[in-house]
Structures are given as C-alpha cells and as structure tokens.
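Table S2 (text version). Query chain:
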Amino acid sequence: MEKNSKIYVAGHRGMVGSAIVRELQRQGYHNIVTRTHKELDLTRQEAVEAFFAAEKPEYVFLAAAKVGGIEANQSALADFMYENMILEMNVIHAAWKNGCKKLEFLGSSCIYPRMAPQPMSESCLLTGSLEKTNEAYALAKISGLKYCEYLNRQYGTDYISVMPTNLYGPNDNYHPEHSHVLPALIRRFHEAKVSGARSVTCWGDGSPLREFLYVDDLAELCVFLMNNYSGNETVNAGTGKEVTIKELTEIVARVVGFKGEIKWDTSRPNGTPRKLLDVSKAAALGWRYHTELEDGIRLAYQDFLSNPVRAER
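Corresponding structure-token output:
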C-alpha cells in the first residue's frame, strides 16, 4: 500500500476495526474511508455495491462482524450465521466487482475443529467437527475465507485472510450477556469490587485453556500482512501462549482489585477444552506479538474505566 492509497476499513467502530485504523494512521496512511452502520448497512447488497462503485477503494480490511460470547452465539444461531455470511459476501463480492487491488478478511480461531491437534495450524481447517456453541458463526467465517480463496483461484485476485485468537483491548464490548470471556470478566469483577460483593461466580470449572492477543498487536499484523503476504491459506494471529480460565480470572481480579472469592458454576458450559493457535507461519513472515497478557488486561481495564458509555453496552 502507498501512503495515499484509498483504504476502506469495514467495521471501524468495532474493537478490531478501530485498532486497524489507529495502526494505519500511526504508519502514515491518510486516505482511510469509513462508514458507520447507519451510513452503510453491509447486509444490504445494493447499498454495498453502490458504495464500492462510488468510492473504488484500492485496499479493504474486512473487520465488520456480528460477534458475541457463548450465550449470545447459542441464543441467536440463525442471526449469527445470516448476518455474518451476508455482509462478508456483499463486501468481498463488491470489492472484486470494482477492481479492489487487495482485500484482507478477518476471521476467528473458532473456524478450526473442536478437537483439532494443538497447537492448531492453518492446515487443520475442515478436518473435523466444529464446537457446537459457536458453529453458526464459525461456518459463516469459513465461508468468507473460502470465498476469498475461490476468487483468487478463479479470477486471480489477491485476497487474504487472517485468523485471530481471542482478542481484547480498547473499544471492546462489555455487555453482560453478549461479550466474550475476558471483557465479561473485567466488567463482572469491577462491578463486584464496586458493590463490595464477597464472591464472583464464573461459568464452567475453570479448566479450559485459552490464548489471548491484545488487539493493537493484531492490527500491526493486519497491516503487515496486507503489505507482505499473498496466498490462499489463512494466517493465524496469536501469542503461542495459553492460560486456563481459572488463571485468567485470577489475573483479572488482581488487575481490577477484587479481593473476594472466585466460585465456579459447573452447570454452565466450558466451551472448547483448548484453543491454541500455531503461530509459526506469522513468525516465519517476520511478525511477533508485543503485549503480555497482564499488561494488556491493565490497558483494557483503563479503557473500560475511561468510557462509561461503552461499559454499559
């Protein structure tokens, strides 16, 4: 990308999209195009095609998505599948139709099989059954990834995809029912501290292993890949390190300053037992994460405290 290239960031108000915009600006890219959901509904094909025909972006970061944690995914299976699949297809197809030089699709590590060999390499895609609690979302993301691959193979486009592990950081979603595990814990422990609660009850038994990547580190990788990678196979984005959910709760409690007891509700689902990405491909390309987990959680908590409106979402 040239510094004056026209770059469209879809989903610029979300955690990932806003981080990509920050990173592009930090690196001196100044011709960045964005649209709010009110200005452009990506699920409406006619509107998306009109936008691309008018703006003709040269590069596209597709970070827009309908996202949520276990409860949100389980309670709105059809919504997660439809909205994600339709917006992906609309944006990718319109980009191809209007001569976009390069597109980068943002997926999720949930695309990999529930019992994939650990750590999960890019090649294990579609080698086994998916985790049922987020199957609808995963199927939509796999479809977007594959559509990019098929356009490359059929039409010679240069569309790539990156699959991040669990993300957190500035502009996260802290909704009590619809957020992912780490922001949900930040909110829960903060509210417990403020209310003087003696204990906090968390889902499952604390045994699942998870990997977490600070979103600004992902954004750096996204820009790096746009400039340095071409290929049909996706690229994993993670730290290569994992912690148990129990260890995670202890770190969050320490950062937030909650001194009470942590209890576990084993009637609630754990989700996938383990999800560690093999990040050797990104490392071989020359990228490595910067932000250690406790440091990143401290930054995320500061962001949570600085924006009461976001904390109430």
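Notes on Table S2: The radius of gyration is 19 Å. The chain has eleven helices and 13 strands.
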